[in-house]
Amino acid sequence: MTAKLLSGKEVAQAILDQAKKDAAELKAKGINPKLVVLRVGEDPGSISYEKGIISTVNDVDIDFENKVFPEDVTQEEFMATLNEFNNDKNVSGILVFKPLPAQLDEEEIKYALNTLKDPDAMNPTNLGKLMIDDARGFSPCTPEGVMEMFDYYGIDLVGKDVVVINRSVVFGKPMAMMLASASATVTICHSKTKNLAEKCKAADIVITATGRYGMVTPDMLGDNTIVIDVAMAQKKDKDGNFVLNEKGKKIRTGDCVEECAEKAAMITSATPGCGGGTGPITSALLTKHLIKGCKMLNGLL
Are 125 and 149 in contact (CB under 8 A)? Predict the structure, then answer.
């Protein structure tokens, strides 16, 4: 059996199409959604991520502004700028890029971020709203992207046994809460879980996000298992050495090995040949959250 490949790009495009319509409706009322990115330093990964965000918001016709701080920025300088954008009525969303340098107090920053302008749920208050099913909160984009995947492909979660291989605050825990709210039965697993393979094989759905290629193998899956792999990893051989492509570069992948696509019923993964991953959905959801925040800030929700 070969798995049905689930496309994150298709899901993302559906989200972007709706966000573009919503942005146009707001602009017709004289309201312009706007995203601000706060970035410290010139980390190549952050710059690349920022370019992707700029492209996405431009496609949806959402305004964008970035503020780049030097590596030695003080807490006072950073907070002053954050509070300025918190109070700016023309700003509907703020993204604080991490990691932050050691001299900045991330705890103060994340609690200071305006909860209505927090599209990726950095402020723990939004995570608290998720716990009580408060629709005015925001969920972290990556786990919400998995829920969008289920919705787009009509995958019913009611009564399903779901294994989540991740227990982080940014993914595993909010993922479990969303699944439970959808009436799934959730088991959270991690590096110290006993009999992980048995738990996965008994599950209807396996969601993995460890960043370790080979974490999920075909023998861990049942014949009807749905696999959602949101990890970003680099391919290694059985001896733990990086596998290089024809250009001598490391191969990006997910947690699943390629053969999982021959065992699972449905699969999406960044692993080559396994559907393409959920990354595009995460970026698209930023636009959906910006629209939602903009509506709340303007009394339309």
Answer: no
Cα–Cα distance for residue pair 96/98, rounded to 1 Å: 7
Q: What is the DSSP string of 222-271?
A: -TT-EEEE---EE-B-TTSPBPB-TTS-BPEE-SB-GGGGGT-SEEEBSS
What letter would DSSP give residue 4? E
Residue 232 within a domain: yes
Within 8 A by CB and 6+ apart from 68, the residues are: 39, 40, 41, 42
Token reading at 173: 């825990």
Q: Is residue 150 part of a domain?
A: yes
Reduce the secondary structure of 110-149 to three states and give it as a string: HHHCCHHHCCCCCCHHHHHHHHCCCCCCCCCHHHHHHHHH
Q: What are the CB-based long-range contacts (under 8 Å, 24+) for 257-262?
A: 257/213, 257/214, 257/216, 257/217, 257/218, 259/217, 259/218, 260/3, 260/216, 260/217, 260/218, 260/221, 260/227, 261/2, 261/3, 261/5, 262/1, 262/2, 262/3, 262/218
Edge-to-edge, what's the strand order for the sheet holding 4-5? 4-5, 266-268, 226-229, 205-208, 161-165, 185-189
Q: pLDDT digit string (tens) for 97-115? A: 988 999 999 999 999 999 9
Give the range of the structural domain holding residue 39, as residue numbers without chain letter.
33-114
Tell me which residue of 176, 174, 150, 153 sits closest to 163, measured CA to CA.
176
Adjacent-strand bridge partners of 185: 161
Q: Tell me the backbone φ, ψ of residue 3, rounded to 5 degrees.
A: -70, 150
Q: Return the CATH number at 61.
A: 3.40.50.10860
Q: Which of these three, 98, 114, 130, is where a domain ends?
A: 114
Whole-model pTM: value is: 0.92
Q: Quick: pLDDT tens for 198-230.
A: 999 999 999 999 999 999 999 999 989 999 999
